[in-house]
Fold Adenine deaminase.
Amino acid sequence: MTATPPAVELHVHVEGTLEPELIMALAERNRVELPYADLDDLRARYAFTDLSHFLDLYYANMAVLREAEDFATMTRAYLERAARAGVRHVELFVDPQAHLARGVGVPVVLEGVSAGLADAPAGMTTGLIPCFLRDRPAEEADEVLDALLASGVPLLGVGLDSAEAGNPPGRFADVFARARAAGLRLVAHAGEEGPAAYVREALDVLGVERVDHGIRALEDQALVTRLAEEAVPLTVCPLSNVRLRAVRTLAAHPLPLMLGAGLAVSVHSDDPAYFGGYVDDNHRAVMEALHLTRAQVHTLASNAVEAAFVDDTRRAELREEVAAWAAQP
Ligand code: HPA
Ligand SMILES: [Zn+2]
């Protein structure tokens, strides 16, 4: 079996889809001086030692995003690639605070990304999930939530990302409660580099409905039992885990253990332009390196469908597409 399943992409950061060529093109369009001699010099910086090392480059490269049109261009480029990856539904993360810090306001970011999403290929459904930066003050997240709600741009939910170690989710309890009261769905990165305790805290204090990554939950057996019993979706990003050295090699990835424990895991791409692949590449990589059975890949694809923030009609369509893939000889 080589074909990857129809994908429901629930863990992808739009700024992490900014390919090196597009970084260079936008730098030229906006006359932004980058500290790289050329494309090869930029590419040479993609060997990361950990999450923070990656985030330094990820935030630095955002300097090329100035106007709403830049955000739309980036989003359209992603959707085109996503269609080729077999993506049928995507819930896209965006980091408004990373742009605010550079003087680019929340409306510019949201209007640009949502204009890009409006051009999604026929049949692909989309949603937008702005994330708060956990290494910034909770008060700033509060102000950003006000700006998000005032923008008038339709949002699916809010998330929490950026440097995890030493930044537990609990500080964001109030802003997440406000987001929930405003009708937004809640997710958070937890257990990527941070401990299993952060996964618990994301569930109990923030009340998240999905956990992004969650691989370190495996260090706490009682938590694993709970996650399985409550069928808490975990959006796992295998190529990201290897490139950020959360996992030593793909062959040593705990995905089979997670499936074996009955966890509601699914496979996603995180920052595909930085980590060596989109969601199809991630599926292909784990299928090969971990020798997954067709039934296991079917479970991963079905878990993603069940974890999506879609209505019953759309979920039924997505279920059918995955079933049709599984029924192929
Ligand atoms: O992989 C990630 N982890 C945490 N924050 C992020 N923001 C973009 N990518 C990531
Ligand atoms: Zn992520």
Residues 13, 16, 51, 58, 161-162, 189, 192, 240, 270-271 surround hypoxanthine (ligand 1) (CB under 6 Å). The chain has one domain: 7-308.
